[in-house]
Amino acid sequence: MTNSPLVVSxxxxxxxxxxxxxxxxxxxxxxxxxxLGHQQYLLSHIPGAHYLDLNQDLSAPVGRHGGxxxxxxxxxxxxxxxxxxxxxxxxxxxxxxxxxxAFAARLWWLLRYLGxxxxxxxxxxxxAWQSQAYPVTDVLPTPQQxxxxxxxxxxxxxxxxxxxxxxxxxxxxxxDSRESDRYLGKQEPIDPIAGHIPGxxxxxxxxxxxxxxxxxxxLEQQQRWADIESKTExxxxxxxxxxxxxxxxxxxxxxxxxxxxxxxxxxxWCSYLQ
Length: 274
Prior knowledge:
Layout: E1 7-8, H1 10-15, E2 22-26, H2 36-43, E3 50-51, H3 74-83, E4 92-96, H4 104-113, E5 119-122, H5 125-131, E6 157-158, H6 160-166, E7 172-176, H7 180-183, E8 201-202, H8 218-224, E9 233-237, H9 244-253, E10 259-262, H10 265-269
Parallel strand pairs: 1-5, 2-3, 2-4, 4-5, 6-10, 7-8, 7-9, 9-10
Helix pairs in contact: 4-9
GO molecular function, one term: thiosulfate-cyanide sulfurtransferase activity
Pfam families: Rhodanese (PF00581)
InterPro entries: Rhodanese-like_dom, Rhodanese-like_dom_sf, Thiosulphate_STrfase_CS, TST/MPST-like
C-alpha cells in the first residue's frame, strides 16, 4: 500500500465512487468562519464523502502553548477514521477541500503520521470536481465501521525545544510555509506577534499548486526544493501546523522524505515571546 498515489484526478475518483476500498473525506474549512465548511458540506458534496472538521476532528483543544491547532489525540482520530469506514493500511482515503490543499493536506499528513500511507489528495479539489460537472449530493453517507489501530510515527513531529536545538545546524533546514508578508513580519492577521523564527527560510505553501488548485508537476516540486535537498532534516512550520502540511506534501512529491512538522508552529513559538 506504500505505492498508493499521492494525488488522484476528479475523473479517477468519479470512476471509483462505488469502490468499497475508497473512503472520501471532505475537509472544507474557513479559518474566518469555522462553521462554514460543514455548512457547505451539508448543502453539497461528493457522493459518499464524509466530513472531518479542522477544529473538531483534526486538532486538539487549544491551550496556552502548543499553537492554535494542536495535533489531535491519535486514538480519538483513529476512532473517527474507523467510524467512517477506514481500515488501517488498506482503505484508500481521498481527501479534498476548496483551498488548494490547505486543510485536506492536514488530514493527508495526519493519516501518514498515524501509520496509514494509503491516502491521496483530490487534484483541484471541490472546485475541479464541480467545474467538470461530476455528481454532487446533499445525502449524508451511511456510517461504515472500519478497523483502525494507529502505529504512530512520533519522530515526524518536533516541539519548540527540538526546533531551538536543531534549527542552526548545517544539516537542518527550517522552513516557514506562510506567505512572504507574514514571514517578513509586514503583516500578521492572526497571531499577536509578527515575524518568523530566526534562521527560517520562506517557502510559501501556495507555491505547491497553481491558482486553480492543481498540483504542479513533480519535476517542479523537485526544482522548488533544490536548495535544501541535501539536508538530512527539514523542519516545516506555518502559523499553526496546518498549511505546513501542504509543504510536507510537496516534499514527498519531490522525493524528499526528511520532512518533519513543528506542530505548534509560529503560534506556539510566539506564545513564549509575550
